[in-house]
Specification:
46% helix, Rossmann fold, 9 helices, 255 residues, alpha/beta
Length: 255
């Protein structure tokens, strides 16, 4: 069954582990997927070499999500090329592992520009196209349980993800009358990106993280992909402004 056949899906931060898992899930279900990230098209080839089977339904463009004009051009260009867009996954993110006292203003500002401004640019451009085209589209923000629980070594990231959560809710209310659904997935410990790199160097640290999760499991990228596809499914048409917190119970012990 290809539930998303003919649907046009946009994913920012598209070359990251989570984004690629989401892309593959949509492609397996018949969608056309457009990825954006900071790498050049030539640099992206290595990341996308396992996607050759989907070459006719996958495209990539180098985009800086902090450049609002570039993001708007990307969204409008895809809407023109395909005649529509249906789903936008707001995934691009910046993470700085520093305590607040060691965090420079430049590091703080970059994190807010990527995580908050970048989210705003893609979400707003997508919502406007949905509204103007009378498309009952979907926007999904990739949030984090860090928006809910305080982390001493992630102040800039936690603040940015808390802002994204309110952006999601504010937009969901405004665009609900047009049938546009806007939601968020907020994972806990994921075997991807920076965490994966740390755990590969120190398996003991991964075991410690796993032991801290009440359900006793680290989230795999495929788990997140399944949640995203469930949120945007036609069978889930009444959900908007919601945060799907998939942290294995971490927020229950760190409220």
């Amino acid at each position: 069954m290809q539930e998303y056949k003919g649907k046009i899906v946009l994913i920012s931060g598209g070359l990251g582990d989570i984004a690629l898992a989401i892309a593959r899930a949509y492609l397996d279900n018949g969608a056309v997927v457009a990825l954006s990230d900071r790498l050049t098209a030539e640099q992206a080839i290595t990341k996308l070499q396992d996607f050759s089977f989907y070459v006719d339904r996958l495209n990539y463009q180098s985009i800086d999500v902090t450049d609002g004009i570039a993001v708007q051009g990307w969204v409008q260009g895809l809407a023109t090329k395909y005649g529509r867009i249906d789903i936008s996954i707001v995934n691009a993110a910046q993470v700085t592992l520093k305590n607040f006292i060691d965090l420079s203003f430049d590091e703080w500002q970059l994190e807010q520009r990527v995580n908050v401004d970048g989210a705003f640019f893609l979400a707003s451009a997508s919502a406007k196209v949905f509204k103007e085209s009378l498309i009952k589209g979907n926007i999904v923000f990739l949030g984090s349980w860090a928006a809910h629980a305080v982390h001493a070594h992630l102040p800039a990231y936690s603040v940015s993800k808390a802002a994204v959560r309110m952006l999601c809710q504010s937009m969901a209310l405004e665009f609900a009358p047009f049938g546009i659904r806007i939601n968020e997935v907020a994972p806990g410990y994921v075997n991807a990106g920076l965490s994966k790199a740390v755990w590969e160097k120190s398996p003991a640290s991964q075991q410690s993280a796993k032991a801290a999760v009440p359900l006793g499991e680290i989230i795999e990228v495929e788990d997140i992909a399944r949640q995203v596809l469930w949120i945007t499914s036609e069978n889930n048409k009444h959900m908007t402004g919601a945060t799907v917190l998939m942290d294995g119970g971490l927020s229950l012990i760190r409220p």
